[in-house]
Batch of 2 targets.
Target 1
Amino acid sequence: MSSSGPASSESELLVIRDLTVTAGSSTLVSGVSFELGSGQKRGLIGESGSGKTLTALAIMGLLPEGLEATGSIRYEGRELLGLREKHLVGLRGNAMSMIFQEPMTALNPVMRIGRQIAEPLRIHRGLSTSEAHSVVVELLERVGIDEPQRRLKSFPHELSGGQRQRVMIGMALACGPSIVVADEPTTALDVTVQAQVLDLLRDQVVANDAALLLITHDLPVVSNMTDEVVVMREGSIVETGATAAVFSNPSTAYARELVDSVPPMSRATDVAPKPATPLPTDAPIITLRNVEKLFALRRASLFDKPQPLRAVQDVSFDVHRGETFGIVGESGSGKSTIAKMMMGLEWATAGQIMIDGTEIHKEGDHSVLHHTVQMVFQDPNGSLDPRLRVGDVIAEPLRALHIDGDHDARVLELLDAVAMSADSIHRFPHEFSGGQRQRIAIARALAPGPKIIVADEPVSALDMSVQMVTLELLDQLKRDLDLTMVFISHDLSVVHEICERVIVLEHGEIVESGPVGSVFGSPQAAYTQMLVDAIPRLAVRN
Amino acid sequence: MRLNFLTGFTIVVGVIGTAILSFFWTPFDPELVDASKPRIGLGEQGHLLGTDQFGRDLFSQLMVGSRTALFVGVLAVAIAVLIGIPIGGIAAARRGWVEDVLMRLSDVVYAFPPVLLAILLVAAARPGTAAAMVAIGVAYVPIVARVTRGAALSIYQRDFVAAARGYGRRGPFIFMRHVLPNIASVLIVQVTVLFALAILAEAALSFLGIGTQPPTASWGRSLRDAQTFIRLSPRLAFWPGVAIATTVLGFNLLGDGIRDALDPRLEVGR
C-alpha cells in the first residue's frame, strides 16, 4: 500500500502536506503540513478561528459545503483528497474516527445508544444485530458505563454529559481505528468529569494502539495527553515540536504568549500560597441569609404532581465593599441562580437578600437595585442583541433607568474605559470578536454606574489569551471605579487568580467557604478536594 | 435559490400591478352585461380571453378580481398578525398558566377549518367579502400565535433579555425592542405563506357562494359561475383557475425565497 507514498513518510500513518482550505476567495487554512505516526499522540492547539477544526474535518473528508481543500492528505500512502465519497465512507469510522465536542448534538437524539454504537460495526464489520450486541456491551463496559445491558436501551438525553462522551468514545473505537481525531472532546464537560473522560480516552487509545489527534484550546489538557504538538494561528502552523519542549521553551512569541496565559494554578509547579486578606470590618454590601430557591418543574403529565427542584438551599454569605468574591461550582450547582437572585431576575423562595442595605423583594420598585447591581454574562454572543448597534446596546441602560446627562458622551467614555474605539458605536455586535463583544457587555454593565458587578462565567467562552486580558480589564475597572465584584466560575484557576474569598457550591449548598488561598490550598471538603485535583495542570519538562 | 425569490417576486409584483391598473383601466367594463355576445371565444371581438355567459369581458373580470384577492389577503393577514403576535408574545413572556390558557384557546380555534368558521360567521352576519376576510383572519390567528410563541421562547432565553430586565426594562418594551426584531424574519416568511392561503380561502368561500357577492368580481366567484358551463366552455373555469394558482405559487415562492435569504445556516461558515 505504501508504495505510492513518498519514501520519507513510509513509516507514517497519516501525512499531511501543504493542506490549504479555501472558501471562495478567502483562505482559511494555508500550507499546513504534519505527520501522525502509528500510535502517536499529537495535539493541535490554537485559538478560535485558527483553522484547527477545519484541518480535522479536511482529514475526515467532512468539510462543509462551499469549502475546498487542496494539497495532500495521505493515509497509509493513499491520497484522501479528491477521493470519492464511497471510498471515504469505507475509511471513516473504520480506519479513522472522530469524537466531537458536544456529544448531545453528535449523537442522534432519537436513536437508542445501543443501535447507535452498533452502526459502525454493522456497516464496516458486517456484523448482524445479535453479533453486534455482544460487542457493544463489551465496548460500553470498557468505556465505563454502568449496567451496559440496560444502558443499551437508553436515548442520549437520558445520559449525563460525561456518559454521552463516553459513548462517543466507545463508538469511535468500535471498529478499532488506527487514527482517532478528537475535537475539543471535553470542553463541554464539568472539570471533574473532564478529568475522567480524558483518562478514559488516553487509556483506550493506548489499548487500541491507535494514533490520537487531539484538538483543543486547553494547553494543560494537551500537555498531559500528547507527545507532539502543532500550534496553529490564523490558518497556519506557527510552531511544532515535542509537547514538553514547546511548553517549557516556546520558540515563537505566539506560543510563548499562549503558555503565559495559563493561570499559575494550572501549572505543575506549586503555587505560592495566596496570603489571606484580612476580613473588612465594615458592614457588608451584599448579605444572603438562609436563601432558598425552589423551581416548580413542569409536570410530566397532566395528573402528576409538579415536582419542585431545589436549586439553592440554605445559602448564607457576606460580601464586603471592594471585594472580589468567588462562587465556584459545577453545572447545576446553583451558582447562576444565586447571581440572578442578586440581580432581581429571580426571587428567593425563602431567606433574605440585602443589597447595599436594602432588602430585595419581588414587589416594589427595583430601580435602586438596577442602579446598584449590574451583570456580565457568560456568552457575549447571547448577551448582546444582534439587532442593536453597539452605541444603542450601551445607551439602553442609561435610557431605561432615566439617567441624566449626555448619553452619547457617556457611551464614548464607557467604550474608552473598556479600550474600544469610538467608531464602534455604529457597528453591530457580530462585527466584533468574542473578546471585544465581552468588553462591550462590560461597558453596558458599567453604564448605570453600579456599585456591584456580578460576573457569571465572564471569560469561559473566550480564548485563553483573551481570558487573561479580559480578567485584567475587569480587575483594573474594579479598582478604578471602586466596585465590588461577585465572580462566578467553574474554573478554579481563574477564581484563584482574581478572587479574595470564595464559596464552593455543590447541589445548591455551600460545602466550603473562606479565603481563596486556604480553600484551594488545603481544602477541607471532599468535593473541593476533588475539584482542585481535577484541574488539568500544564506538564512541563525542565 | 435566488430563482425562487425572483420568480415569486415577479409574480407578486405583477398581481399587485394588475390590481392597481384595474382601478384606472380595463379593456372593457367588467360589469357590463352584453346579451348579444355570451361565451364568445378567445380574442374574438377584441375580448382577449373571451366573455362569460352574460357577455362580460373575462380578462377585465380577472383584473378586477385581483383587487378582491389582494384586499382579502392583506386584511385577513393583518387581522391574524395583529391578534396572533400579541397572543404568542404574551404566552412566551409569561409562561405558566397564562401560556396554557392562551395556547389551548388558540388550539380550539385552530380546530375549526377556515371554511367552517366562515359559514358560522356568515350565518351570524351576512355573506360578503368582509365576512370572508374576518373568518379567514380569525382562522389564521392560531397559526401566527404559535409561530410567534415558538420563536419568541428561544429569544426570551437569551441573555440580552436578562440584561434588559437587569437594567429595568419591562415586558412590552422588551418584546417590541428585543424580541420582535429578532423573530421578524420567521414571521415575514409565515405571513407570505398565509397571504397565499388567504387568497385560496377567499376563492373557496366565493366558490361556495358565501364570500364575495355579485356584482363584485372575484376569482372564486368566476370559477363558480363557470361551473354550469364547464362542458360547453371549459376556458371560463380555466382562466380564473390559472389566476388563483399563479398568485398562490407566487406568494409561496416569495416566502421560500425570503426564508432562504434570511436563513443564517446558508451563510458560508468562517
Target 2
Amino acid sequence: MSAINSSEIKREFVRSKIGLIGIGILGSLVILSLVAVITIPIDTFKQWNNPGSWISYPKTAVPEWVNYFVVEKIPEHLIMNNPATVTKEGVITLVSQQFAIQYYYDDFPSDFIYEFNAEYSGSHLLQITVIRPDQSQLLLLSKSLPYSDTKVIHHERIFSTDSSIKKNIHLYFSEMEFYNQNTASENIIFANMDGKVLKGDYLFLMNIYSVDKKVNVTDSKLILGGKAYGMMGTDELRRDLAVGLLWGTPLALFIGIAVAVGSVIAGLIYGVYSGFKGKKTDEAMMRFNDVIYALPALPFLIILAATISNSIFLLVGFLMIFGWVGIAKVSRSMTLQIKTRQYVEASQMMGQKNSKIIFKHIIPQLLPYAFASIAISVPAAITTEAGLSFLGLGDPTFPTWGQILHDANTYGAAARGMWWWIAPPGIMIAITGLAFVFIGNALDAIINPKLRK
Amino acid sequence: MITLLLTVALVGSNMDIILKQSVVYQVRAEITENPTISERFATVEEFDKFVQEQIDQRIQTLGLDNPWYSPQRIGFTMYKILILDFGNATFLTSDSGSSNVSDILLEKIPKTILLFTTATIIISIIGIFLGALAGSKVGSVIDRITSMFAVVSSSFPVWWIGMLMIFLFAFTYHLFPARATPSILPTEPDYILALLYHMTLPLITIVMIGFGAWAYLVRNFMVGTLQEDFITVKKAIGINKKKIIYKYALKNAAPPIITILALSLSGSLGGAIITEAVFDWPGMGRLYFEAISVMDLPIIIGATYVLTVLFLISILVADLLYGYFDPRVKTE
C-alpha cells in the first residue's frame, strides 16, 4: 500500500498477462456496444416487447450457423424483398413479381407469407403460381383485389394457411399417396412424389392482371418461414435474439460501471472522512455502516424494485446503496494508517484545511485501491441486476441479458432444448464479468505485493 | 431492529392499499350477493353513501384509518415481532395448509438447511483443502488452475449454471428431475430418498460454482501465513512439509477462514432466492420471493427477522471464535 505511483502501476500492469486479457475483452465489448448502438437503431430496440414488430420473423428458430455442423440442413428463414418485376403491356396488363428460391434444405419450411402493397383503381386479379424444380407448375391462388373507383393503396398478407391455397393444392395432389387433408400446404408444395423434400430451384410468381388500368406494386415481400434465422436465432415471441444480446452489452456495461464507480466513490469519501475525523464521528459513522452491512441485500433489492420502481436508473441507485459498505470499511482503516504519517501531521500543524488534507494527501494514496475495487465490484453489479431481471423485476423498456433469460425460463426453453436462448446471455454476462475480474485481479496483485509469487 | 423498521416502512404503505381494496371488494361482493339491500334505497346517491359508510366502518375496525407510520401501529407491530408472534400470513399457506407464519417458516427452514447448508459445508471442505494445497505450492499447475477456476466460476451467475444443468441433465440426458420438489407425499417411506435424489442437481450446481472462490480465499491466506518467520523456522528444523501446512499454517490462517465460514453458513440459511426459483426448491428463498411478489407482509417481516437475527448471531459467534483462534485480538 505504500508509495506506488501511477507510472509504476502502468508498467506493472502492462507486464501482467491477465490484466491485458481483461483489457482486451473489455475493449471488444466496448466495440460491440458501439456497433450495437450504431447499427441497430434504438427504435428497433424499444420495440423489443412489442410482438407486432417481430411478425415477419420465425418462431424459435435456431441460429443459422448450426447448418454448418449438421448433416440435415435446417431450412433458413428467408425474407425476400426484391423480386424481379416483369411487366407486360397489352389489352391485359400483367405485373409479375418473381421470387426465385434455391431450396436445398432437408426439411420443409414452416410457412410462407406473401405481403404486398398495391396502388390501383378498378378491379384486378392476383394469381400466385409456383414453378417447381420438376418443371411442374401449380396455381396456388387466384383472387381479385377489392374493387375501388378511386385510387387506393391496398395492403394485404396472404398466408400459406389460406383456405383457397389449400383447395387448389387439393385439386393437384389428391391422388398422391402421401396426401392428407391435414398436411400443411408448404409440406406439399415443397414435396416430391414420396412426400420428401424436393430440392431445387423454385420460382414463385405473383401475377396481377388488369384491364387497361395500371397497378403499382410496392413493398412486395415473400417470407419463407424457416427454422433457422440470423446469428443468434429467435425466441418464442419471434424476437431476433442478436438484437437483444447486442443491445444488452452497452446496458450491462452502463449498469456495472455506474454502480461500481458510484459506490466506490461514496464508500471512499465516507470511509476517509470517518477515519480522518476519528472519535465520536468515526464511531457513529461506523455503526451506521454496520447497520447497512447487516441488511440482507438481495431481499431488500427485491422489495425496493417491487414497491418503488423498476426503472433501470433507480435500480443502479439501489445497487449503490449496498455497494459502498465494504469499501468504506477498508478505506477507513487505510486512512487511520495514513493519518499517522508525518507529512499529514505536518500539514495539519501548518493549519491546512481538513478538506485539502483529505483530497491532497489521503485520497491519492487510496486511488490504486479504489480502481481495483471498481473493477472487482462491476461483475457483482451486473450479476445482481441480471438476477433481479431474471426474477421479472427488470426494467421492461430496457431489456437486459437477465430479462432474456427470464423469458427463456417462463417459456420453458430448457425443457424444449432451446440452448440458443439460454446459453448466449449467460455467456455474455460471464465474459463481461471476467473482463473486470481480470483487470481487478491484475491491479490487486500490484497493490498487494504479498499475493505475488 | 432497524432492518425490520425499514421493511415495515417499505412494504407497509402498499400493504394498506391492498388491504383497503380488499375491504372495498368484500363490501361490494356482499351487496351483490344480497339484492334486498339495494332494494331498500330509493336513489343511487343514498345507496352509494351506504356503501361508503360500510367501507369506512370496516376500515376503522381493522385499524386501517391510521396510516401505517402512526406510532400505535408501528409500536404494536414491533411489539408483536419481539415476542416472536408473526401473526398469520395474508395469502400464502404452508404445505399442510396452516397460514401461521411460524408454521410456514418452520416448514421451509429445514429444506433450505438440507440443501444450502450441506452445500456450504461441502464447498468449505473442498475449498480449504484445495486452497491449502494451492497455497503451499505457489506458482504450480494446481495453483494456477485453482486461481483460474476461482476467477472464472465467480463470474458466472449460479442460477444460469442451474438453467444449463437442468437443460443438460434433466432434459437432454434425463438423469435428474428438473423440478426439485419431490412428487410424492412427505408421509410415504421413500420420501427422504426422493428428496435426496431431487437435491442432487442443485447441490452439484452450487458446489461447482462455490468452491473455487473459497479455495482462492484460503490460498491467499495461506500464502500470507507461509511467508511468516515461524514457518521458515519450522522448515529449517526439518519438520515434514505436510505437517507444517495442515497443522501450523492452516491453524494460523484459521481465524479469517472461520469468520467467513460462520457468515456463509448463516447466509446459506436464507437460501439463494434466485437459485431456489430456478430449481423450484421449496425453501426460504422461494418463500421470500413468493411473499414479496404477492406482498405478504407478515411473511416478509418474519423471514427477514429470522434471517437478520441469525446473521447477527453468526457475526457474534465468528467474533468469539476469532478471539479463541487468534488470542491477539482479545487484548484491546
